[in-house]
Specification:
alpha+beta; 60s Ribosomal Protein L30, Chain: A; 4 strands; about 55% helix
């Protein structure tokens, strides 16, 4: 299971380097409102209020949401500081990440 989790983090890093991932509250929020995000990933260790806000936005703007990983791990995967929210802007990458997380069963 650890290897599969690492595969997901590696894929997040790949998506970021390919410019198919945006990170951070404001950037994800703006891109959601423009309809540019297919999948929002929220860290498990974010506040319930923060998660609720983004889940509501995802439903409003027809994006899927996924609660996965810890802020430190997501940030490390991107080479950034701890990160509570990322948005996947490529449909195929979003589907792949969604599938990988389902396989892990998190």
């Amino acid at each position: 299971m650890v290897k599969k989790m690492n595969d997901i983090y590696n894929f997040l890093g790949l998506a970021y380097r390919a410019k198919n991932l945006v990170w951070g509250y404001q950037t994800v929020n703006q891109n959601l409102k423009k309809g540019n995000i297919y999948l929002v990933i929220l860290a498990t260790d974010t506040s319930p209020k923060f998660k609720s806000k983004f889940i509501t936005l995802c439903h409003k703007y027809n994006s899927q949401e996924l609660i996965f990983g810890k802020k430190n791990d997501i940030g490390a995967a991107l080479g950034k500081p701890p990160c509570a929210v990322v948005g996947i802007t490529d449909e195929n990458m979003a589907k792949t990440i969604w599938q990988k997380v389902l396989e892990v069963g998190v």
